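Case study 2.
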Amino acid sequence: MVAVAIGLLVHQQRLEQVADGSRAEALAQLARVRQVYALTGRVDEGDAEAALDSLAVPEPLRRAALEGRRTTYLDLSSDHPEVWAARPVGGHVLSVRKPLDEESREMAEFDRQLMVSGAGVVVLAALGGALLAGRLSRELRTAAATARRISQGELDARIGGPAPVGGRDEVAELGAAVDTMAATLQSRLEAEQRFTADVAHELRTPLTGLHTAAELLPPGRPSELVRDRVQALRTLTEDLLEVARLDAEVERPDLETRPLGPLVAGIVRRAGEDVGLTGADEETAVRTDARRLERVLANLIGNARRHGGGKVEVRVAGCAVTVRDHGDGFPERLLREGPRRFLTGAAERGQGTGLGLTIAFGQAQVIGARVRLRNAADGGAEAQVRLPAADTAAQH
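Prediction:
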């Protein structure tokens, strides 16, 4: 658009120059013819450009001359452009005509060169713009990919682009800001993880002593309450240590191939009699860590038992295990954002630390499984654990 606008402007300026020059030449020629006519009383018939009362004079020019004015008339729209000049002479109209065929060809050549030059400028500008836009696009895509990696838990991901040297580079500033944000976030999360691990570790020794002392108390209701609370504290401490290990990504699974149905049946038997099981004969082979899978299912069953209503149901189908209760279902915030430690999601879900689901998700990630939370159409909460099939895991 800029090239077209500049081209039109230059074309118009050049056209005005040609028109002004042609009018000036026609007036100069008219003055010479007027001098010859004043001396000789006639117009040289050999001069085809000059005439007295010529019928070819354009009508607007003729009327202006009869009114006593000396003027010019420019015609650039015809196939043979020309310029006229005329003036009154004793009741007659003295006129000269100057063809502009040469000037027309020069204008055509000038326009052609202008178009070629404009096209060249446009091509160069497009190439430069494409290179610049491509560089900016690559840097922005890199920043977006790094931000996605950070959001997925890869806190040491960095854009690492060159810092701006002189002037302003907004993309480099964005990259530096994202890197600074990621470094700050990483340091804060690592400090939180260290704090959680340190607190849980430091609590183990006094809790062990407290548990031993509680066992020495005489039988009775107060002793039972003390032992119950001490056991709750020990469970919380062990959960915190497990969360800290999961956060640090130091857990390594001991994978083996097992039929899923019998494996889940053993886990359900150890979970208690209030858990129903269907699909115990499912022979689909999965590659998993049995101990960690039991930890995942035990936490899901415990969560369903604590917050749900009625009998807890476990269903095995293919490579998936579904744990269902018949309570009020998962809160929308939990379904939208996923489990958060020390947050149960809603008051109607009852009391709890929120670590059960956090540990279940973390241990499932260690063994390569996926946990999906949803609410059943006829009421109740469902948590589905999908395990990798043995043949698929072997290919990976």
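Residues 101-151 form the longest helix (51 residues).
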